[in-house]
Amino acid sequence: MFQEPASWVTQKDFIPYEEALATMQARAQAIREGTARELVWLVEHPPLYTAGTSAKREDLEDPERFPTFDAGRGGQWTYHGPGQRIAYVLLDLTRPHGIVPARDVRAYVCGLEKWLIATLREFGITGETREGRVGIWVVRPDGGEDKIAAIGVRITRWVTWHGLSLNVNPNLEHFSGIVPCGIREHGVTSLAALGVRVSMAEVDSALQRNWAKIFA
């Protein structure tokens, strides 16, 4: 059985959502069977909307705009597209990972939050969590709050899949076709919108450095 650190794979081209789901399902099964290493898979998708298990049909406000998919993860509607770094995380939670004890789903989600917050800190952004609102939030100068990263996970027989999305430099107007995560009273933002112009490679490097602080 594999006990080495998780493999890191960066997808070079946009990957269709159906292909990503099939790849994750196959890898999760292999991890359960002990024939594959755990995986952190960094991808970008073409523009699309995905529905989590709690998604409400009325929150899809522009159903003809982009393709839509049932994701099978937790959460509600979200947008994926170019300029957004998605990290699909496939771990065997029957064993501990850094600060995350074995078989502790709440601690795993908290670990994802800490990972994002530490990564954003490298770029001078203060990311915060909010009770009852999954994801990472930043406070505007006027006191309002915008979401900069979303978290949506699925755990099958203690193997995690799906993961998180971080807005690096996506077209934020594309979020207008949905009610992101079912929350109408807050907006979305990105590193670029906050004045932080960094490449996806720089973000990936920061993600990998901070992964070691949380999950290694």
What's the short story on this structure?
The protein is α/β, with parallel strands linked by helices and 216 residues long.
Give structural notes.
This protein has 216 residues and is an alpha/beta fold. It has a single domain (7-214), classed as 2-Layer Sandwich (BirA Bifunctional Protein, domain 2). It has three helices and eleven strands, in the order βαβββββαβββββα. Strands 1, 2, 6, 7, 8, 9, 10 and 11 form an eight-stranded mixed sheet that branches. Strand 1 (7-10), helix 1 (17-33) and strand 2 form a beta-alpha-beta unit. Helix 2 crosses helix 3 (200-214).
List keywords for this structure.
single chain, 216 residues, alpha/beta, BirA Bifunctional Protein, domain 2, eight-stranded mixed sheet, three-stranded mixed sheet, 11 strands, 23% helix, globular
In whole angstroms, the N-to-C terminal distance is 18 Å
**How large is the radius of gyration?**
16 Å
Task: Please identify the structural class as seen in this structure.
Answer: alpha/beta
> What is the top-level CATH class?
Alpha Beta
- Residue runs with pLDDT of under 50 for 5 or more positions: none
The secondary-structure element order is: EHEEEEEHEEEEEH
- Assembly state of the chains shown: single chain
Tell me, rounded to a whole number, the average pLDDT.
96
The major beta sheet can be summarized as: 8 strands, mixed
Percent range for helical residues? 10-25%
CATH superfamily: Bira Bifunctional Protein, Domain 2
What is the CATH-assigned architecture?
2-Layer Sandwich
Shape: globular
Count of domain modules: 1
With helices defined by DSSP (H or I, 4 residues minimum), what is the helix count? 3
Fold-level CATH name: BirA Bifunctional Protein, domain 2
Strand content: 25-35%
DSSP strand tally: 11
